[in-house]
Amino acid sequence: MQQFVKKLDISFADLYVTGVIACIGAAEVAHLAGLFLGLGMGTVSLIWGGFFALLLLFCILVWWKLGRRDRKLVPCHKGLPIGFLLLIFVQMLYIFCMQQLVTPGDITLETVTTFLQEDGIHRVNPLTGGAYINPLSMRYKILCLPTLYGAVCKLTGLLPEIAVCHIVPLIVLGGCYFSYYKLSGILFGKHLGKRYTFLILVALVLWMLDGATYLEGYGLLQGGYMGTTIRGLILIPYTLQGGLSKQWWKCALCVLAELCVCMTLWGLGFCLLITTGLVILHWCEERKSLKEAAS
């Protein structure tokens, strides 16, 4: 087990991000079971909860086997990590205490509330409370985030407004910065000073992008529960990190996760496009190296 973890070069940041992705995958399994078998939210929640418990035990085992590893990082001034953590703390306070805004076109909260009230998945229109006049497309029906949030509410007793608008965005915020932390390792190697400077700049840019709907900063601070936010702030930077480091299993996980949370052309989304581009670039680089070695 320890050799397997060492070979994959898994860190705590990887465990956090892949844990979020695995939770989405478990929710997709439970969602499809509830959708096609007509299960109630109680049963769907138990299915997801079982997968989540196994996932949590696996992460604890991996972290225990991982232990402390000496990465020989170049030390930096203590003010940089302290400044970064201060920015994150302020953002966390803002997300947890903010007055929730109404995002045009987004009905995630209404859908979660309907799932819980009707004890089932897509049984009534969340906007009217009645039956659907026009049937939903299958691509939309298989998106699992409302079921995931509903399962969290069902198992914990949290109100949908608290879970969807405050708790989930905090988890997404952590996934965002862990993804960018891993990406900074590709860009700046073991120089902690440069990596924390990069993270501080990312945090400041996200603050500044809170001014318009569906910008990445707006997604982080106002709509962390949305699928587009998860894609833009967690899946895309993690795909870049995985592709640049040739850890293709990370790219595969992100491609599958995007399929489950965003309206794409049956999975042909940004993560797949980025992965394809990086595969082509690596292939061209290897071909060039072979030609130079042969000449």
Tell me what the structure shows.
The chain is mostly helical and 295 residues long. Helices cover 73% and strands 0% of the residues. Helix 2 (12-37) packs antiparallel against helix 3. The protein is globular, with a radius of gyration of 20 Å. It has helices spanning 2-8, 12-37, 41-66, 79-97, 108-118, 138-141, 145-156, 160-188, 192-208, 216-222, 227-244, 248-261, 270-294. It has one domain.
Order of helices and strands: HHHHHHHHHHHHH
Average predicted local confidence, pLDDT: 91
What general outline do the C-alpha atoms trace? globular
Query: Helix- and strand-based class?
Result: mainly alpha
Annotation field: number of helices:
13
Question: Nutshell version of this structure?
Answer:
With 295 residues, the chain is an all-alpha fold.
Give keywords.
13 helices; 295 residues; mainly alpha
Question: How would the blueprint of this fold be written?
Answer:
Blueprint: H1 2-8, H2 12-37, H3 41-66, H4 79-97, H5 108-118, H6 138-141, H7 145-156, H8 160-188, H9 192-208, H10 216-222, H11 227-244, H12 248-261, H13 270-294
Helix pairs in contact: 2-3, 2-7, 2-8, 2-12, 3-7, 4-8, 4-9, 5-7, 5-8, 7-8, 8-9, 8-11, 9-10, 11-12, 11-13, 12-13
